[in-house]
Amino acid sequence: MKQLIDQHRRKFFGIAAGTVAAGLGVIDLADMKVETPEIVASRIRRALDHVPAERIVVAPDCGMKYLPRPIAFAKMQADLDEARTALSDRKVIDRAKSILMNQRSLNEQDAYALLRSSAMNQGKKIVDVAQALITASDLLGGGL
Asked: Are 57 and 22 in contact (CB under 8 A)?
């Protein structure tokens, strides 16, 4: 049974065997108000303060069957919009990490830590710092 669960985790969530995943509910089912992508994103970011990203599995539809169909659909649409934004942000952050890794001979973890600490020191989102780094690199002719 454990092997089947590990296969499922790898196939659908990209989670390595033997790691513990946290299912994260990001939709408030007690509230008929539809969450904006920004609210969903803030809930995910709060979880990242406590659980590494690679161990989080967002559970967008848990309990939705009890909601009226239009509300459930709108809530899932907000989830989808946030997922698209998060994917776009992830690509920007990955490109910025790559620039740091090449220019400063850092490993991936150190490059991310540098981006994160810069963002915290400046009071900005990490994706904004990453985009600024990419822009500067492109202007200086070092873009990837």
From this structure: yes
